[in-house]
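User: Can you predict the 3D structure for this chain?
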Amino acid sequence: MENFVIFVQTQFVTAIKIIRSDNETEFFMTNFFVNKGIVHQTSCVNTPQQNIIVERKYGHLLNVVRTFMIQSHLPKIYWSYFVIHVTYIINMLPTPVLNYSAPHEMLYKTEANFNGLKVFGSLCYASTLSTNRRKFDQRASKCVFIGFKRETKGYILLNIQSREIFVSRNIVFYEHVFPYQRVQDTSKETNSPNIYDPVLFTEDQPVLSQPSQTILAPCDNAENNSNNNCYSHIEVPKEVCSHIDQNLNEDHDIEQTYESDQYV
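Assistant: Here is the predicted structure, written as structure tokens:
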């Protein structure tokens, strides 16, 4: 609170006259308020209606933070970065309370710049520092964007492998990819990958359709293999079946050509 009062006096050349809060102990700074000439108003116990403006804004922040958490799938231990980033965005948006002007515009008398905004929790690659980097070391690290650094022209990133949080400016963003979303989705699957998952295929590879043909294969158990009647049912997609048939036809053509060559 003391730092905030000094910040307002220095940056906006104005003095805070009244501060209203609930009855939490962190706001009881009687000597500080007296020295600054600030009137400290408190609401009645268990009566948030008397502080309705702050309560509504608090609910607004939590609603947007939950939305960001659902989209990014980041763990809740990074909640402070969610709150700071959401506050930064809300202050840049127009509001009917200020006649559809943004708080940033009212304070700094300039319009907000949206060019530097990035999708929270999206994938990005940050260039590694040249110091202590050898020839065959990686030139970029896989990270997640978690906010902006105040008073610094850089982005706050979370390294996916080391969990290190650092600031960088040389970054390539992939704002449509959310790494933590894929990690949580795949954790619920079995050890064997899903061959029908589009994530496993690149743009030049087709996604396999649902299985359309069932074939018989010997059981994995070596004891049961002695019994010729023990088979397992395996479902194979159409694309795989057509590819197998094509290879079998090609092998058959090669055998015929080889047999004809022997009689020449």
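The first helix runs from residue 2 to 11. Confidence is low (pLDDT under 50) at residues 189-226, 260-264.
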